[in-house]
Description:
Blueprint: H1 3-14, H2 23-33, E1 38-41, E2 47-51, E3 60-66, E4 71-77, E5 83-88, E6 100-105, E7 108-114, E8 137-139, H3 145-151, E9 157-160, E10 165-166, E11 171-174, H4 177-194, E12 203-209, H5 217-226, E13 230-238, H6 247-250, E14 260-264, H7 269-281, E15 287-291, H8 298-303, E16 310-318, E17 326-329, H9 330-344
Parallel strand pairs: 3-12, 3-13, 13-16, 14-15
Antiparallel strand pairs: 1-2, 2-12, 4-5, 4-9, 5-8, 6-7, 6-9, 7-8, 10-11, 11-17, 14-16
Amino acid sequence: MRKESINFLENLLDAPSPSGYEQPAQRVFRDYIAPFCDVTSDVMGNVYGFIAGQGKERPKVMIVGHSDEVGLQIKYIDDKGFLYFAAVGGVDAHLTPGKVVNIHTAEGAVSGVVGKRPIHLIEPKERDAVVKLDAQYIDIGARDKKEAQKIVRVGDCVTFDSRLIRLQGDRVSSRGFDDKAGCFVVAEVLRLVSQEKKKLPVDLYGVSSVQEEIGLRGGTTSSYTVNPDIGICVEVDFATDQPDVERKHNGDVALGKGPILTRGANINHSLFELLYSSAEKEKIAVQLTANPRATGTDANVMQISRGGVATALVKIPLRYMHTPVEVISLGDLEQAAKLIVVALKRITDKNAFLPR
């Protein structure tokens, strides 16, 4: 992966962006795509990159990845200065005790730790029980409530302290790949398209959406704003090449074997076939998964926006979703961007995606 791209990915992952608090990550996204396209934002915080195509009656294509990550939010400060919190998105209560966190205050990030009673002080019959999130607390070292309130306000967002780390081969780990991996691919598509010698036969909108983890909210509003003919959502999906995931339910998906193309009611059949045949033509390895219902992604709301949108879903295999140590293959990211660009070149007629 090119140095500038990996630097962008690292900066994007470092930027805090729990749902509703995405702007640090959105600023990174805006700055990166600015040389490649026209950039705008909306009141929700969605960011749009636009590249005009050529030709008459050009189809309008929107690709989207969401910038928000799961995190925490401060709910209450007790008399001793301990901070109680709630989850933003799907946070596993098993994971939080003992973690280092960053509270993002008006004056900058403040370090804290999620405390827990020592095992010596827990009755044996209680040791296997999960402490509910609303009973867990963050310790910032404050002496009392008054001191804590000078530093932290109720409503401040919290992220797990995590950085991009290199594993073996092209595998990397960080928090927030769900779905900054998608945002990264959207940005890379805009970059690659901007470098094409010939303009595409479509008007392209690359969107970094917000608040997906709490109800596909930015995907809903950005789809309404763009009003695309064709939409491609870029997301992550469960890799099943780890020991404790059931393949019969989640499919056979592995890191490093290419992006995933989803099939099901949420997906336009003709658009799927275009992506699949594009992968075959360019010898890009892809994996298939099936989802017989609406997907829990921005593809869901994109498909049913206004009068309906021909929608597809390109996913990146991901291990350990919604943990601070999500793992992906950098090669899968690059191949996803390449596949989407190849497919965009083959879209000429929006009516080609009408069911027949």
